[in-house]
Amino acid sequence: MSVLIAPSILSADFAQLGAEVKAIDEAGCDWIHIDVMDGHFVPNLTFGPPVIKAIRPWTKKTFDVHLMIDPAQPYLEDYAKAGADLITVHAEADKHLDRSLQFIKSLGKKAGVSLNPHTPEGIIEYVLDRLDMVLVMSVNPGFGGQSFIESQLEKIARIKRMIGSRPIDIQVDGGVTADNAWKVMAAGATCLVAGSAVFKTKDYAANIAAIRNSKG
Ligand code: DX5
Ligand code: ZN
């Protein structure tokens, strides 16, 4: 199956966010990646549920909501109601990860867990059967436009082995470009997030295609 491309709207023009979401939809993206930051778990602030609700009518594609907030649990229902289809929480920001994952599923949404670059993959071993996705952070979260951390390639490969035949996506987020996407896919990624590499020029279709067709 071909890789899923999820442009991060962190790099979009916030003054016209609805139109930007429509533009990446029409440019052939698979999911819309929405980076939620709280100024506490990460040193930046972004979108609350009202913003997600406002852009929901602009596309039918999957809203992939990456919560970089601590705690996430009190806000899960708000993000689900705002229009998230898949909700990802950070393992480092959750003392009760298993409970949060069960709650996301009870809301009828897909559930993901994200790991910061320093976090070993073993932390997800006992929640694997509750997961729809594992998100490997290939930069330290908080900002777009950072460089890919090469050590995460080994982590992606290890997670692929842990997952085995389970239907769990491996998403990779941070510093993904048309130049390095091929090795991220080769390691086992099934979904690539890209912010600056998609929004760097107005030809979003060409930028998405370049990542999708990346070759070493
Ligand atoms: C970082 C975010 C990423 C980021 C990716 O905290 O989770 O989604 O926006 O941006 P690029 O592709 O520019 O590294
Ligand atoms: Zn993200």
TrEMBL record:
Binds 1 divalent metal cation per subunit. The keyword Ligase does not apply. Coiled coil: none annotated. The active site is at 35 (proton acceptor), 173 (proton donor). Substrate binds at residues 8, 66, 142-145, 173-175, 195-196. It catalyses: D-ribulose 5-phosphate = D-xylulose 5-phosphate. GO terms for cellular component: cytoplasm. GO terms for molecular function: D-ribulose-phosphate 3-epimerase activity; metal ion binding. It is an enzyme of class 5 (isomerase). Its cofactor is Co(2+); Mn(2+); Zn(2+); Fe(2+). InterPro entries: Aldolase_TIM (IPR013785), Ribul_P_3_epim (IPR026019), Ribul_P_3_epim-like (IPR000056), RibuloseP-bd_barrel (IPR011060). A divalent metal cation binds at residues 33, 35, 66, 173. Pfam families: Ribul_P_3_epim. Its EC number is 5.1.3.1. One of its GO terms (biological process) is pentose-phosphate shunt. Keywords: Carbohydrate metabolism, Cobalt, Isomerase, Manganese, Metal-binding, Zinc. Pathway: Carbohydrate degradation. Transmembrane segments: none annotated. NCBIfam families: PRK05581.1-4, rpe. HAMAP family: RPE (MF_02227). Belongs to the ribulose-phosphate 3-epimerase family. Catalyzes the reversible epimerization of D-ribulose 5-phosphate to D-xylulose 5-phosphate. This is Ribulose-phosphate 3-epimerase. It comes from Magnetospirillum moscoviense. The gene is rpe.
